[in-house]
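Example (one chain per record):
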Amino acid sequence: MKKTIGLIIFLSSLLSSCGGAVIGPTAASGAITSTTEAQTVKTGFDALLARITPANLQSPGNIATVPGVTTSAISPKAASAFDACTTITPTTAVDADGDGVAASKKYEYNCIGVAEPGHPAENRLGTITISDDDTVPASQGGAYSFAYDVQFSSSHYQSTWEGEFSLTRDQGKLTYGSRFKAFFSESDYAGTWESNYTYELNPTDPASPWDAGTAAMSGFYRLQASGTVSNQHVDYDYTWEMSSGNLEYEQTGTSGCVNYYKNGYIQFKDAGNNLIRYEFTCSAVSYSLNGTAIP
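Predicted structure:
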């Protein structure tokens, strides 16, 4: 398994926190020492910001997950070699608001040495729990959450996911919270991704919350890696403080903005006060390290 797959699997699930067990980082740590290091960690930030957008938050089915897992109460999942060792409760899930997210759905894995055709035997242990307030569809800003406490392993790799992604609604304001930790390792690489942040949306029109409004991001995000990536040795462990300013989003009809953001910035600061900053205009985004442009 390629190490990039471990990163993609983790980032593609970034929307949850684990029953209070995972709190996540609470302070910046580590300091980059070169533009090259900044460009390396920026790759992780790019993937994070590509996932955390109004477009993705309104489609929670895109957020989850593990092959064979579906948020839906009615859509069948593809048959899998893991079916016999996976318990799904309840047997018949409910989705009263019809938004594709079951009011409650839990996957429990007790799988040892199971192999899909063309793949090595794999172990899956633990749970993934999906829940929805089931009164307001996700497309209109309805609340939902994904909680993970699961481990994957084979003769080639090990990976753990623990934590929760959740979206809550309070008088029209939407708050997405991520308190999550994932670990992935194989023979020549090990990496950890850890989050503790919130992303708030204040829609212009609460009835169409994903179209336009203001946004704010704050919290902490950790990237740690050691080993070989693309034939290059890496060894870093940084926790970045996340913040934003004057962030507006707009995506309506044919007048949508690139990356959703009409203007504003999102920035990441390490313990050495190094600042990687994303500046948005409706048509473009630029990047800088301590005020100097970087690719």
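Caption: The two ends are 29 Å apart (CA to CA).
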